[in-house]
């Protein structure tokens, strides 16, 4: 019963996935800032129940290093709140230091199984 409740709760989540193609010359500094500044800052929103940072292993045709930041939220209402209240500041703070050195691409995914 407990396992079923945990499974149900996890699989009802929405994944806010944002992929970044980052210039090879700055990717280590960019990743360090993501881990030490940006993720802790957005966790303060209280909307993120879990997160993961991944690195794409195959090469991107345009060069650069590709990272994916996965933010798990409970529902689309929380995603919309995050987008309205926190997304702009999240990306703007990156842009201030790394202007023109990364390209973000976001998607929303529903956890199915």
Can you tell me the number of structural domains?
A: 1
Strand content of the residues, in percent?
Answer: 25-35%
Helix-strand topology string: HEHEEHE
Would you tell me the structural class of the helices and strands?
Answer: alpha+beta
Strand order, biggest sheet?
2-3-1-4
Instruction: State the CATH topology.
Output: Alpha-Beta Plaits
| Bulk shape | globular
Number of strands: 4
- Main sheet attributes: strand count, strand direction, barrel closure: 4 strands, antiparallel
Q: CATH class, anyone? A: Alpha Beta
Helix content: 40-55%
Number of helices: 3
> Distance between the terminal alpha carbons, to the nearest Å?
17 Å
The appropriate CATH architecture is 2-Layer Sandwich
Mean pLDDT reading: 88
- The low-confidence runs, each spanning 5 or more residues with pLDDT under 50, are 4-8
Radius of gyration using CA atoms only: 15 Å
